[in-house]
Structure formats: structure tokens, C-alpha cells
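Predict structure. Chain length: 235.
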Amino acid sequence: MSGVLHLIPVTLGAADARLSLPPSALQAACGLDYFLVENEKSARQFLKSIAHPLALRELQIERFDKDGDAARAAALLQPLLAGRSAGVLSEAGSPAIADPGALLVAAAHRLRIRVVPHAGPSAVLLALMASGFNGQRFAFHGYLPVQKDECRRAIAARERESHAQDITQIFIETPYRNDALLQAFLDECQNNSRLCVASDITLATESVRSAVIAEWKADKPEIGRRPSVFLLYAR
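Prediction complete.
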């Protein structure tokens, strides 16, 4: 009988796991000794923080990040075909959402391995919940282009799409580019379009602000290097 691929949520930043993760997820993580992770260092920190019953040196922790491919995913899942279970740990809160772990999940389905998702925080979904924008129709686009003109063309296209289709557009950014991206939205979008910036979700420093572009222009904050989600709604 094959093992199980558990999708284990982690905290968004240095938060107490007991306050943001359900007991069932923590119990599942503590019952595993094989982990497929986006970053080994932060995975070890997380496992230590939840008081995993095994010493870290007794755990097998394998990296699967943005450079992972289908062949690597299949190779990492071979122990599960022999009955061993594994946990996927993301840098994004919930595995496989804005995360390369989706390739592991796809490989598990191809191999007929059972996949068990555990509830936990997703910055993208929490930001959508807190935005007040359309939660019936939304699209997550990940990162916008880095090049300035391409970024602004992409923003304009997504704004038109949002207005035409009544859809919330969701983006993330590398923290050091947060303020540049905010300025790009202010320069490119119509004054009556709505923008939400959700930063440090689930942390003590959390902030969520939704306002029309004209209001953002009149009172533009400095986001700094705080993990943030940007949402655009042109209705």
C-alpha cells in the first residue's frame, strides 16, 4: 500500500504555530519523518518550533523549489510507493498555492498516491477575504513583469479585464519591490479602480488597506520589505 502525501501548512512569518495552525495539521506533521520542502533552513525552524518528537538529524528533508521539475518530483515520491508517507512544506503558508509544491501534488496523482491537504493560512486567500473585493470571481497572477514598461502594460490589461469581467486580480511581489509596484498601480490605474494591499498577514504587524486609487494617491504609505499581497478590482 502506498504512503500518503500530506500538504502541511506553515506559519506566515515568525508566528506561534499553535495560534494559526489547527491541531490536526500539527499532529500530521509530528507523525512524519520525511519532508519535501521549498527551503531546508526554514523547514527545520518550523519543525523545531512545533516540537517535532524526532531530532532534526533523524528526519529526511529534501529540497523541491522553483527549479524542481516533474522528473525530480517523481523521484522524491518513490519512497511513498513503498509505503512511507511524506509532508510538503512551503514558504507560502499553504503548499501548492503560489508554490512549486503543485508539481509534487500533480506527480502524486499520476502515481495514484493519496494526497491529504491540511487547513492553514494562505496569504493570497486571507488577503482576498479581507479586501472586500469580489470573492466569487478572482484570478491569481503571481508576479508581474520586472521591466517597468512591461509591468505597467500588464497592470493596464488586468485592470481592463477586471472591469469587463467583474473579477478581482491578485498579485504578489518580491518584498524589496513592494513600493515600486505600488507606485506602478498608482501611475497606471484609473482613479476609481480599487486597490488593496495586505501586508504581514497573520503577524502582529498585519495591515490591510482597501481604497480607490485616488485615495491611495492622496495618502500613499511606505510598505517597505513586508511580505505583501496586492489586489486590484476595477468595478
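Summary: Residues 123-233 form a domain with the Methyltransferase, Cobalt-precorrin-4 Transmethylase; Domain 2 fold (CATH 3.30.950.10).
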